[in-house]
Amino acid sequence: MHIYATHEYTNSVSIVDVTSNTVTSKIPIGNHPMGLAIPQGVPALKNLTVNPNVLSSGNSGTASVTLTAVAVSDTAVSLASSDPSVSIPASVIVHAGSITASFSVSTTTVLADTSVMLTASLNSISKQVSLLVTQSKILSLKLTPTSVVGGEISTGKVTLSAASPAEGFVVNISSSNTSAVAVSASVTVPAGSKTATFPITSLAVSVQKKPIISATTGVTKSTTLTVNP
User: Fold this and answer.
1) Domain extent for 72
2) Per-residue model confidence as pLDDT tens digits over 159-183
3) What's the CATH number where 192 sits?
């Protein structure tokens, strides 16, 4: 470590190695300098954390970087995400006088649980933390109407926990009694939407039937349609 000692009457500054207690050089400067400077080293990156470390598709969290010491000037820490399903800024500033800085973490819809690595870098040091983004789930399945006469059509509506990705999101549809109700095998929630509708065709029955209509994406939501003669 070095300190800088001024010499008012010789108009110079001495650079002193405090380890050996010797002057390593002397620099001529302007008239009558005064004072003593003790430069501080640039703090290194200590860690990177994210809270929570498990996020459902479409939800957001917060991450933080921490330095080894208080920043003596505004310090930019570079940031990166290993997967486009998680968005973070390109960098975050640890302001002078602070030791930590936080930034937002946002997610998009994933078709399967996805482990994403977040990386923070400062000079030659990088820190990483893992974030698990869980796939979109069905929040609800609703039928309109919930009771029909055989031959009439009801409309099913599925709602996801997050907006569908660019390629769409397929939800599997089934009926517990195909002799009373016919449904398509699946419905696709279009990109950017959380909902999709599908027709449910009831068939003629001699006695009242109550088939169960189910929508599945790993999680299953079910409801009953009443089919009357």
Assistant:
1) 45-134
2) 998 888 778 889 999 999 999 999 9
3) 2.60.40.10
